[in-house]
Design goal:
Blueprint (H helix, E strand, L loop, with lengths): L10 H13 L7 H10 L2 H13 L2 H14 L4 H13 L6 H13 L2
Helix pairs in contact: 1-2, 1-3, 1-4, 1-5, 2-5, 5-6
């Protein structure tokens, strides 16, 4: 298995990438989700990382999230709350998003 390339990331990039992943959990990134992410990260971070995110396969995305969780010291509870906020931003917190949250909890711990 090839190691994902995240050596250019900092903790904020890791957080932004996870939030982008969550916003796309149901294959539809809504305006409300974008606005929620922008409240939590810098606009230039999201633009740069969105380009990277769009080029990655789902497998690469998961591998980057796992690698970032190992590399960065972060407040897990804070990240989980940020993820939940993104899921709830559009007023729909569906089964797919709930399942993704359970999976991400396992990946980032």
């Amino acid at each position: 298995m090839k190691t994902p390339k995240i050596d250019h990331w900092n903790i904020d990039d890791f957080k932004t990438y996870i939030l982008l992943y969550c916003a796309n959990a149901d294959c539809a990134e809504t305006q409300e989700e974008k606005e929620m992410i922008l409240k939590q990260v810098k606009k230039n971070d999201i633009t740069t990382l969105h380009s990277e995110f769009d080029k990655d396969t789902d497998y690469e995305r998961i591998q980057k999230i796992i690698a970032g969780a190992k590399q960065f010291d972060y407040d897990k509870n804070s990240v989980i709350q940020d993820i939940t906020n993104v899921f709830e931003a559009d007023g729909r917190y569906d089964t797919m998003e709930k399942n993704l949250l359970m999976g991400l909890k396992h990946l980032i711990t």
